[in-house]
């Protein structure tokens, strides 16, 4: 039985690469990592590179002041770009038929830090702090309030696979007939908790992250939001495949052989009804930690072989944690949307070029590399999270007949 | 949206067996505000890393499936607050510019309970973790339906639970703050007793919810002779029906 259609009908996004679609696409395919910035404030006695959003973010409407936090401002920046399409969907289907499934790993914890700092000084939490900013469910509620969607609204939080998982559930809500359209994606914001937490784990690179290199030494953190309008219409760019798995291994380290990653990728291919050689490009999870890159390369080599072009786009925007699955699906969406002349421009793998002989051989995309884009073009994106939660998505686009 | 409720298990302080829940459901009363299970079924090494919430949710989960099912079923974990109580200490470390404990940090992800369940049960199946404020129970059921949509062959183990928020944030949240967990196996319709969920627009103002969590109100209803239950969510009304 073939799956019912799932169209990623509209995209809004913001990351260190910017907000405007043309700028983001140009920076993406040129491998522009110049948008990362050095930060000396967040982690004591430590300078670290970050993928901070530079764009001015929209203010939270006064009527929704209890949701006012940077995380929701990022979501609002993404939402504003798809507001016309979401409004049209609500007008067409009714507000009860439009749902919200979003991912985050931080929610507004950065603003909770400020509230607790205020309490340390004064004995009381900052009065502008509301629990809606901190709790994970607050992101879905905010997107529901700001969009006017009255269908089911919930937040998925499975660490770094949250954003990919949200899109998977949005597809199911439409296929089940629970919703006719879903606003789905993720938002994650830089804060003291995640930067200090990953620093304590020894997971942050001394310089800019250097994925798959023999010299790799950890990740670079970032922040982002990407929101799609997901519908059951055919055509356009489709979410064709979802694969997911748990590791049953360790809370903060993947199975060294990448079995969980392999299951997710194989299941996503099977779900999409595709053979490995049909994948034109893989967006790696590619965090730049020694463990992730070696297990992921092993899994990729087993599932896709050594010819499919791959890259990590995290050196451009940082690892955006709960938003990574959504922003990287957004990058895949942009590649497909901008394909022309039978070609797909690829984001290059940005690194120092020093191969790790211990890494399984995979094809890391070079600068300027293009993949052949046939009448049907398929791309894949990997997301693997703490707690051992893996999710792989396959997106595809077909030329009009 | 019809599905089957194949098996359930629940834990609250002093109400730990199916018979005790049957008794509670006949004369429901507010639940104790403190207590957590020992979770002796967990290996000692793993148990030491478990917070009260993790022990509570895993007690309900392990009570709701046979050993082979525990290792095989897909899972949906739902919690309004998750590990926020443990995050408070980390947030204090951050504002005092102290070093964070890496183990505590990696155990405060919202899917910590799901991750530890996966390790304890050697379960490598798909798993989701969610939060939807007061609507978390309805959302958990819907997320299970999403898993069934993708693959209807096996049921999904749904586990919801919370513990009372610590004093830092408790005054900010009006809710029935009790430690509890509730687990159900949800399968496609036709496998067992049927539950139908319908979502409707909120057409009238919400009435006051009962003084226990929505998931336990669902359990009370499930154990009662009542045919239907209505629960208010933030922007919709959940209508549950048996049969």
Care to describe what's here?
The complex is a heterodimer of chains A (401) and B (243). Chain A has 401 residues and is α/β, with parallel strands linked by helices. Helix content of chain A is 33%, strand content 22%. Chain A has eleven helices and 16 strands. In chain A, strand 15 (376-385) and strand 16 (389-398) form a beta hairpin. In chain A, helix 8 crosses helix 9. The longest helix of chain A has 24 residues, at 70-93. With 243 residues, chain B is an alpha+beta fold. Chain B has one domain: Peroxisomal Thiolase, Chain A, domain 1. Chain B contains nine helices and eight strands. In chain B, strands 3-2-4-5-1-6-8-7 form an eight-stranded mixed beta sheet, with helices on both faces. In chain B, a hairpin with a 4-residue loop joins strand 7 and strand 8. The mean pLDDT of chain B is 96. At the A-B interface, helix 3, helix 4, helix 5, strand 5 and helix 6 of A face helix 5, helix 6, helix 7, strand 3 and helix 8 of B. Strand 5 of chain A pairs antiparallel with strand 3 (127-131) of chain B.
